[in-house]
Design a protein that fits this description.
about 180 residues; elongated; mainly alpha; single chain
């Protein structure tokens, strides 16, 4: 339930959650960020159950310790950085090696053109395989920008690097994807 103007004033919503424990404001935050953060965590862990557990624990922590929200200047950056760190910690603890292809949902089929659908599916598979083989930081930068609509600055803050480093990671990612696709 976003406001009609489309833009949510997260400073106000954070205060409502932290000071008044406003369930409606928390629900707005949850509904707005849960799916993209889950997808981001999934891109790191490669395991839906682990990512869902991470998100459940993280959201419970936000609700039970809302006073921390008042200290946050950039909510989106904080949320993505927290989920990144929790996901990396989970990987470190259980030594999960993920397969990015398992996290993809099958595309709807076009019964009118099965050959085209097969070619598209193969190309998407090759692209995802190329992405899965990227160096971790290049992959993370690409996923933040491409899949999570982060700006270069937000991605740089989340990854704790400079904007130029994000740009370089994206150049590396695109070069390796092109190389893997023989373009």
């Amino acid at each position: 339930m976003e406001p009609k103007g489309g833009e949510i004033d997260w400073v106000v919503e954070k205060s409502k959650i932290a000071i008044a424990k406003d369930a409606t404001a928390f629900k707005l935050l949850f509904n707005h960020f849960y799916a993209p953060l889950l997808g981001f965590s999934l891109s790191i862990t490669g395991n839906k159950e682990i990512s869902e557990d991470i998100m459940a624990d993280f959201m419970v922590k936000l609700w039970t310790q809302p006073e921390k929200l008042l200290k946050i200047n950039h909510l989106k950056t904080y949320l993505y950085t927290s989920v990144k760190n929790l996901s990396l910690n989970a990987l470190e603890k259980i030594k999960v090696r993920h397969n990015h292809l398992n996290s993809l949902n099958p595309e709807p089929r076009d019964p009118n053109n099965p050959e085209r659908e097969l070619l598209i599916k193969e190309l998407k598979g090759q692209i995802e395989q190329a992405i899965a083989q990227l160096p971790p930081k290049s992959k993370m930068a690409l996923i933040l920008i491409r899949d999570n609509d982060c700006s270069y600055k937000e991605a740089a803050d989340i990854m704790e690097v400079s904007i130029k480093t994000i740009d370089r990671h994206l150049q590396i990612a695109m070069g390796k994807i092109k190389e893997n696709l023989n373009l």
